[in-house]
Amino acid sequence: MIFRLNEEIEFPNPRYGEPDGLFAVGGDLSIDRLILAYSYGIFPWYGFRERPEIMWYCPLKRFVIFPDEIHISHSMRKVIRDNRYKITLNTAFEDVIRHCSELRIHEKGAWLGPDIIKAYTELHKEGFAMSVEVWDGEKLVGGLYGVVLDGDVFGESMFSLVPNASKLALIALAKFVKQSGGNIIDCQFETPHLKSMGGRYIDYDEYTELLGVSVPHIDDNESLE
């Protein structure tokens, strides 16, 4: 079932959604709506050229990385020891999101368009989104960005212009989550890269428990609001 959102800042129960996680369309990308969405593991994902409306997803099988389970291979340990690259947090958010966009901007279904960039940049300015940067000297060679709530990070996109840069960023992110008292890095969807870094599936019940929220089951015939 797919719901149509209106101007009210609320979402229906995502348990009623489609198998791929799509459960709502419409609404907006306001800061308040995005914060509410991510509080329950809901995120916007749509081809900005092909779709006239925002599409909202909430997969009930969540692919996550636990900070203590981040996989650091022997080769990555050597890269870290070599200390060639500098890692920073929140020093170049707009550059990171722009790089992430440019890598896929000409592809069909590209989702990181002007509206998304504007919305997440505003989230960053308000302290609800973060970036990790990887530098080779003065050159930005990799990084990632995501939404951050109560120490948990909901990863959005990453890029790498040199080998291992995105892995370095993800390792740094795991350290940040652990030090911030967060529980998880939400990867949203499985990729071979994220799986190799320690990602695994958990069900939505465990996921929402880790986030500290409660979402009624379908049998309860209720919604988030």
Q: What would your notes on this structure say?
A:
Functions in the N-end rule pathway of protein degradation where it conjugates Leu, Phe and, less efficiently, Met from aminoacyl-tRNAs to the N-termini of proteins containing an N-terminal arginine or lysine. InterPro entries: Leu/Phe-tRNA_Trfase. Keywords: Acyltransferase, Cytoplasm, Transferase. The chain has 225 residues and is α+β, with helices and mostly antiparallel strands. The chain contains 7 helices and 11 strands. It has helices at 31-39, 74-82, 93-104, 114-125, 165-179, 192-196, 204-211, and strands at residues 3-5, 22-26, 43-44, 55-57, 61-65, 86-89, 129-136, 139-149, 152-160, 185-186, 200-203. The strands form 2 sheets. It has a 7-stranded mixed sheet, sandwiched between helices. It has a 4-stranded mixed sheet with strand order 1-2-4-3. The relative contact order is 0.19. Mean pLDDT is 93; it is low at 220-225.
